[in-house]
Amino acid sequence: MKKGLMWLVIVGIGLMIASPVMAGENSRPFQLSLFSPIAILDESQSVSGLRINLLYGSNEDINGLDIGLVNRVNGTLNGYEYGLFNYVENDVYGGQAGWVNWVRGSVQGYQGGLVNIVDNDLKGIQAGVFNQAMNVDGTQIGVLNISDSVTGFQLGIVNWTGKLDGLQIGLLNVATEKENLKGMVFINAAW
Q1: Which site from 2, 31, 142, 167 is most exposed, i.e. has the minimal number of CB atoms within 10 Å?
Q2: Beta carbons of 167 and 189 less than 8 angstroms apart
Q3: How does DSSP classify residue 19?
Q4: d(CA 104, CA 11)
């Protein structure tokens, strides 16, 4: 516990020191929020450094570390987000870890949680009970994995995609755009 807190403080200080270089005109190095709008910064401002949301926080862009119960990014996340519920309106370049992770844009990186949703493209890894992305270039690991297309690997109890260019391993594997054997038990592959 103490080592984890120490690393969190070190990373936070490092991000705050580096943030003037990363920060834009409307960006600040630190945000503390009880729940929006009761916060140091207004929702329209971006954070380049560390954002801590005690209950709920909302800001434009986050470049750095985002920690809280409910985290909302109205723009783009460049960094890592940890919370019970994480929501990003645009894209994620980095990672999310929480019970529910939802990105309205694309993800280049990692999502780990009970429920992981990417409305557009995933380039990286999703690991959770339920994983959904439009186009996957990477890996989905979970109980239920759903996508429109997969270039890579799905591992789960049920794997469902339209176009498959890779491998599915699970109890039920479906690739609806395959000419033959659209559904397979245990292993499904197409290249």
Answers
A1: 2
A2: yes
A3: H
A4: 27
User: Is it the case that residue 67 has pLDDT exceeding 50?
Assistant: yes
If we measure between CA atoms, which residue out of 115, 120, 186 comes closest to residue 148?
120
The amino acid at residue 12 is G
Q: What is the phi/psi pair of residue 178, to 5°?
A: -70, 145
Nearest to 82 by CA among 53, 59, 103: 53
Write the pLDDT tens digit of every residue in 10-26. 555 554 445 444 446 68
- Answer whether 123's CB lies under 8 Å from 139's CB: no
Distance CA 140, CA 155 (A): 6
pLDDT in tens, 100-154: 999 999 999 999 999 999 999 999 999 999 999 999 999 999 999 999 999 999 9
Q: State the residue for tokens 């209950």.
A: 55
Q: Give the pLDDT of residue 180.
A: 86
179 shares a domain with 140: yes
70 and 118 housed in the same domain: no
In a domain, 171, yes or no: yes
Backbone φ/ψ region at 184: left (φ over 0), alpha (ψ -120 to 50), beta: beta
What average pLDDT does the segment 46-59 reach? 98
Q: Into how many domains does the chain fold?
A: 2
User: According to the model, what pLDDT value does residue 147 have?
Assistant: 98
